[in-house]
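Objective 1b: paired records.
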Amino acid sequence: ARAFFSRTVMGRLGRDPRFFDYAEGSVSEHLLQRAGYALSALDPGDNPYLQWLLLGCHRSALPYALRQENFQAIRENLGRLDCRVQSLEEFMGTPEASDIDGFNLSDIFEYMSERNACQLLEKLIASGRKGARLVYWNLLAPRRRPDRLAHRLRPLEELASELLRTDKAFFYSALNVEEVL
């Protein structure tokens, strides 16, 4: 199992080795521990991501976007999507990048230096409305709001902890939920 989760094997399966430039600790140990958590603490029968990883298909659980009960709501809101082929940094320089209520950033900061992550975080804060929430995950590179931004961004640690504990995308080491002040 450790070999499967190694940087080498993951690189051969399509993960660019540069994605681990800022990783701390053992990739295989972390992912093995998190997989163990998903298999024992979460219900594998209710986890579409775990099923996909282990079986290559969805058996008893579907991701939110593929569930029949969500089809109509998604279809009705397709017109609200604004798809762009550009980096987030480029988008943050456009007029549309203002008064944003929420940011789902996945693990974007994982793949950049702390300095670049902080610079992007400052741009996101500047674009967010008061009360806007930023949500981002950490896989192996610890990223959090720097102390110097404490007056502009408040961590919602209890909420983040609860969401991480039940997150079906189980492989992350941390979830950050922060609010623009």
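Objective 1b, second protein:
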Amino acid sequence: MSVVRVKGLTKHIGRKAVLKGIDFEIDKGRVVGILGPNGAGKTTLIKILMNLYHADSGEVEICGEKASFASKKYIAYMPDTNHLFRWMRVRDAIQYYSEMFPDFDANRAKELCTFLGIDESEEVRNLSKGTTERVLIMLTFSRQACLYLLDEPIGGIDPWARDRIIKTILAGLNEESAIIISTHQVKDVETLLDEVLFLNQGELVFSDNAENIREVRGQSIEECYLEVFAHV
């Protein structure tokens, strides 16, 4: 069974066609990059998978169920903005997630705080951008989810934090789950990816698995990305 199945997906925001007939499937055990420039439709697609936006037409299934409020239980979502209350300390955020999500593992959260260099007593309002991203990654991967949705998870952070976040993402994958990473920072995530979907102006302009790109095309994912987008 596919973790995600999307067929004929379209979405307009106002008069603008943001997604234009998108089709793809994602199987268990895969890390998939949804890659494209700003404005390509990546965040809109992520929000439809999360049922935060509704599609105009097409089919979207999460773990064999039609995308709905109920299907959110399968998904651990890291948005591209800090959604935590500013008054919280990190320990409050852990408690909040423990109460919100039955699949949240508080012991795993504490382990990840240590690994990611997070002080549980820190106030959310005082966190740097890099520390905020580490906290959100910690909360996301402390859940035992079927699908992990990460919207721009690695941006503008130092190499140590990037390395720790990448290791956390890889450790979070298992045979029963899949991970989707939406980003335009191709070079930062390419070592993580099993498959790529390139979006441009709402269209899926290229898709392939990473092994084919490296072995058959003889390119890195970044080189493939640059070649594809030079001709669209």
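Strands lie at 4-13, 16-26, 31-35, 57-62, 65-66, 75-78, 147-151, 178-183, 195-200, 203-209. The first helix runs from residue 42 to 49.
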